[in-house]
Amino acid sequence: MLTAIVTLAFAADAAVNLFSPATLTAEMTATGFSANQAGAVGLIILVCAVLYAVPHTAVLGAVLMTGFLGGAICTHFRLGEIGSPPQLISLLLGVMAWSGLYLRDERLRRLLPIRSAIG
Question: CA angle at residue 54 from 52 to 51, to 5 degrees?
Answer without folding.
Answer: 40
